[in-house]
Amino acid sequence: MNQRGTKADWPEHGGQGLVLLQRLGLAGTEPRLDLSASLNPLGPPDWLADWLKDSLERARHYPDPGHPAAYAALAAELGVGADRLLLTNGGAEAIHLVTSAYRGGRALIVEPTFGEYARACALNGIAVERYELNPEGAPLDIERLTSRLDASADKVDLIFLCRPNNPTGACMAREDVVTLLEAARRRGALVVVDEAFVDFADPGMSLTALVDQGLPLILLRSLTKFYALAGLRLGYLVASASCCRRLQRHQPAWSVNGLASALVPALLADTDFASRTRDWVMAERAYLPLALGRLGLVALPTQANFVLFRPPGAPSRAKGEGLVRHLARDGVLVRHTHTFAGLDGAWVRVALQQRQGNQLLIRRLEEWRDSPQAERWGSGA
Predict the structure, then answer these.
(1) 25 dihedral zone (left: phi>0; alpha: psi -120 to 50; beta)
(2) Which of 57, 228, 239, 339 would you label with 263, given CA atoms 20 to 30 Å apart?
(3) What is the per-residue pLDDT across 21-49, written as a single tens digit (0 to 9) for each?
(4) Which of the residues in the chain have pLDDT under 50?
(5) Total Cβ atoms within 10 A of residue 322
């Protein structure tokens, strides 16, 4: 295999540690710390194991397709009508429901961002235009974006925006989102904002309040990242009642499993877990980017539970791969960026951990900085 390979050679998502180690020629290395998947390191709530044991009987039956308890809990939590919600089999299903409903249309994707938007578009015959952000963290130029939308000769049906953005952690200003929504309404487009990581952001960052203002907006949400339940696949979307009905028609029967649905009220009721998680993320979001910067690394500010950074000097794919490999040799797994448009593997994304895990990452980076290999790191050594 070519040492550098192609994008297809690299795992598409985080949490694929064994695939990453094999790609790096390090099969057999024991993963010690997985920073590639952006999940809550506090783990699921302590009561979950007993809850699952007590609820196992639910697995024998088909789930209630109306999921009344889950919808009631979400509606109360968000302050929206239950008819503005659609429970989904993880955030990924929500993305595919939207693209299924607009099959054969045209989409504009703000990048670099989560690759599933483009993949879902491709599966549904949706032509994709790309609006590329500056990967160095410069804010989105809303005037330039809306001017492009207004001047486009081809009708755009969907605009995909991730907020906070994966992988940069940036959060587009609320007033800029409103400006984009107004431009989209003029053009008959729908803005799809992925808020999968918004629960880790500063309070009040969600756009939920905009849904009832008649704007062309769909919010995609996830419960599995905040509660560290990626295997249960639990998400939902927030949109107008008519939009929710339209998207639900594209959803397979019994898409959301009964255990996941029944778990929603209990998760939302655990305010202590939510408080502890927010205390943790605020502390580590302040600590890690600053610690990375002190090492001379270029680290972007973040509103999410992950940090995007790169080695010093000019952006270099070889340096980025060298860093991924250096850390992986010791079992520290990070998210490569070969599959993020415009980053080309030069950057690395790491999920925030509890302080001990973040300090381990810093020590491994210090070892690289102080090693003889640092001088020739640009070769990918």
Answers:
(1) left
(2) 239
(3) 778 777 777 888 999 999 999 999 999 99
(4) 1-5, 376-381
(5) 21
Distance CA 362, CA 307 (A): 13
* Structure tokens that stand for 255 in this block: 């898409």
Q: For residues 273 and 152, give the distance between their C-alpha atoms in angstroms, rounded to a whole number.
A: 46
How many Cα neighbours within 13 Å face the side chain of 358? 22
Phi and psi angles of residue 174, each rounded to the nearest 5 degrees, phi first:
-55, -40
Q: What's the angle, vertex CA 256, arms to CA 255 and CA 261, rounded to 5?
A: 165
Here the tokens at position 243 are 């939009």
This prediction has a pTM of 0.92
Helix 90-101 to helix 116-123 angle, to the nearest 10 degrees? 40
Distance in Å from the first CA to the final CA of the chain: 17
pLDDT given at position 27: 75
Give me 332's structure tokens.
């520290």
Q: Which two structure tokens, joined as six digits, stand for 205? A: 């960052």
Element (H, E) at 148: helix 142-151
Sheet order of strands, 127-132 included = 85-88, 235-238, 217-222, 190-194, 158-162, 106-111, 127-132
* Sign of the torsion angle spanned by Cα atoms 22, 3, 372, 346: negative
